[in-house]
């Protein structure tokens, strides 16, 4: 468990009431990663949602010829690994540290359990996740248009 007040530094959690932050803190742990460490790999079973306290994380996709392409950089206060709360519960990309990083890892299975017990909390949390996904989709479209030189 971590101190719930630390969660207010995470962008999507900043407006949540303390009672909701306490629920998240109770199922969370802090982890430290070194530069170049892999946090999770593409296609691995997704069991944790990550909240970035310090550092930078690169999100990469595998492309042909055993190469990888950077598709996003997560900065302090960002969230990644939301595949842990959305079926089919497999990471759709690889998360690798660009620099030494400190994250809060949230147990995805227990978080989904909280959603079932407290629908208001689950709705608000997933609304924030939907906002992130919408933004990622827009950014992906822009990257695609840039690659296609439109």
Descriptive notes:
There is one protein chain. This protein is an alpha+beta fold and 150 residues long. The protein has one domain: Sandwich (Jelly Rolls), CATH 2.60.120. It has three helices and eight strands. The protein has helices at residues 18-25, 108-117, 119-147, and strands at residues 28-33, 38-40, 48-54, 57-63, 67-74, 79-80, 94-97, 101-107. It has a four-stranded antiparallel β-sheet. It has a four-stranded antiparallel β-sheet with strand order 2-7-4-5, with no helix packed on it. β4 and β5 form a beta hairpin. α2 (108-117) crosses α3 (119-147). The protein is globular and about 45 Å long. The mean pLDDT is 93.
CATH architecture type: Sandwich
Proportion of residues in β-strands: 25-35%
Q: Report the structural category.
A: alpha+beta
Tell me the helix content. Answer: 25-40%
CATH superfamily membership, which one? Jelly Rolls
Order of helices and strands: HEEEEEEEEHH
Task: Give the number of domains.
Answer: 1
Average pLDDT, all residues: 93
> Taking Cα atoms only, what radius of gyration do you get, to the nearest Å?
16 Å
Secondary structure: number of strands: 8
Please tell me what the overall shape is.
globular
Number of helical runs?
3
CATH class: Mainly Beta
Distance from N terminus to C terminus (CA atoms, Å) equals 48 Å
Q: Could you describe the largest sheet, including whether it forms a barrel?
A: 4 strands, antiparallel
